[in-house]
Amino acid sequence: MTINTTAAGRPQAFTLPRLAHVAHVARRLGWQAGSALFPGRTARAFERVWFSLPPQKPAEAPAVLAQARQEWALVTGDGAPRRVRVYRWPGTGPTVLLAHGWGGRANQWRSAVPTLLAAGYRVVAFDALSHGLSDAGARGPGQSSLVEMSRSLLACAWHAGPIRAVIAHSLGAAATALAIREGLPVDAAVLIGAPADMARASARLAWQLGVTPDVLALTQRNSERWLGMPWSAFNVPDIGRCRPVPSTLVIHDRDDSEVDWQDGAAIAGAWPGASLLTTDGLGHRRILHDAATLAKAVGFLDEALGDGGLSARARGGPRAQDRGLHDAGPHGVLGMAR
């Protein structure tokens, strides 16, 4: 950090890093003061921050989306039905569902789709509620939740199933884990850059902002009322400990600056039979377009699904295609529309 000076040596201006630091300190002091003086109001403000999506710029659909059959699935059970945009590409093999991350959309799979199609798979992707071309979620535009992303995924699976495997990125991977907990019948999952524990992640953000633990706890209690489940349900490693999970490949880059590599390692260590593939130098997003990583994911699916679902039979359960998607609907939230 430096300060620019005039020829006479007098301070002229703070550098941008210094100004950014001052602004951060001021914001932190504001949150700390709010936590002490107005805990209820501050809890509501932090709740809005936590469930706010990053700004989404209008993006031209890549050619691969233009080639898809575009349909609507419905999420029901929480007010008026809401439409989820679904994209389908034909193939001769099992169907693979692609789940984007927080603030993402189906076009982030523009590299994965042709790779999967070349391998013979049918491919399905979607824009979660409040993302892409889908309707706004229950909290309105620009707001969503892990629960809402999971229900968007389940609605897509109900609409386009049977689904044999899921490839998911970032919070979409956590949403996939929650969908599996709720009964999504798949034989294989690839989780890329997955966060392990949303309660811990929210505590980290609260600390960074200066929100006190008491106000964080109030935020979580308030949000549990409309989420319909406790924050403890969002612990991805615990999901693998408490119920059967599909054959799983966890992929995580050591240089991921958004989700720690240790999160992926924790998931792989807790889910029975899961494998961990560690990459280097790809970060959180470029990993989705790395040809070698995509080839490893396809190779894993070939092995996991090539025998018709050996992993499911080894657990003593039926294959996903035998169970049928009627098992996947939690809380009456699923419907479909063509």
Automatic annotation (TrEMBL):
SUPFAM superfamilies: alpha/beta-Hydrolases. Residues 312-338 are annotated as: Disordered. This is Serine aminopeptidase S33 family. GO terms for molecular function: aminopeptidase activity. It comes from the Bacteria. It holds the Pfam family Abhydrolase_6. Keywords: Aminopeptidase, Hydrolase, Protease. The keyword ATP-binding does not apply. Residues 320-329 have a biased composition (Basic and acidic residues). It comes from Cupriavidus gilardii J11. Residues 96-295 form the AB hydrolase-1 domain.
